[in-house]
Amino acid sequence: MASHRKPKEFILKRLTKRQWMRIAAGSAAAALLIGGGVVSRDFYQTNATHPQHSISSYSATKSDEVNAFKAASRGDARGSDADTSYVKVIINGESRLVLGTDFTDVKSVLDQGSITLEPEDSVSPSLDTKVTESTTITIERAGSTIETTDTEIPFNTVEEKTDSLPAGTTKVKTEGETGVMEATNLVTKSGGNVVSSNTISSYVKKAPVNKVVLIGTGSTSSSSSSSSNSNSSDSSSSDIGTTIPASDMQQWAHDYLLSNGYSEADFTGMVYIINHESGWNVSATNASSGAYGLPQALPGSKMASAGSDWKTNYQTQLKWFIGYCNDRYGGIQQAYTYWLSHHSY
């Protein structure tokens, strides 16, 4: 029997042009949502499996390390302050970088940078201007000039024992040489007389070279071969020698270390590092990085963990240095070994 019902049409053929457009738009939106979900999922998974490493307080006198510090998120397991920031300050054309925390306005930057304004100073922008890391503060001082001075850094005498020399004899292995500390000072004069002189920055222009004296511990029979074997014997020794303190500051550091269970080798390592980092200048300031003090801590305010007088007290700075070496390298001698390879620590 013949059927009088209309033949069945495929459902898609019944859709109007407008309905087709709605379906296409919906499909595109769904695709975007799905694709976005995959991309965002991969993004967060990538960050979770590859955490960002940041740089904390450390001795930094190299521009690449400073740039790394600026780019880092500032925070790690060693207890760095995630709020640490930096602002550039230019005084009579001389630049320095002030590092600190909780910067709010220009005045807060100058306070944390220990920059004291004189009555005749002009400051731009104004003291109550809000600051960010892109802010540059300019200070012009009337009657002031930038002057550079060099001062000597005394060398130390290091005694190294060797069995290639007979007991009771000594031999100079290396002659000592004084180093040079260069300081940039803002000098204000009135009527030809110096009213004030403030150090803007200072750094070790030339590190001192230790005088190394070999102390014989061998038998008398070894004297004939002492001259030819002394250098090879010392180069293979793991003992880095005993350093004779060259100042009251070093004498305190020596006595403090030994009274707290450290060794002569630890003191030798300390002296070498600080000779090269700051020349034993308590207020040494690296203008480009903001590193400060004997250990060139970056920023200097990190040393506040050892005492509130960290800006001026060498004992506080040295205590921080010891703790830093222990925490980061496992000891002063390990930090010394790292410094020899990297020229920083």
Automatic annotation (TrEMBL):
It comes from the Bacteria. Gene3D superfamilies: 1.10.530.10, Resuscitation-promoting factor rpfb. Keywords: Signal. Residues 218-239 have a biased composition (Low complexity). SMART domains: G5. Residues 139-219 form the G5 domain. Pfam families: DUF348, G5, Phage_lysozyme2. InterPro entries: DUF348, G5_dom, Lysozyme-like_dom_sf, Phage_lysozyme2. Residues 218-243 are annotated as: Disordered. The keyword Methyltransferase does not apply. The keyword Signal applies. This is G5 domain-containing protein.
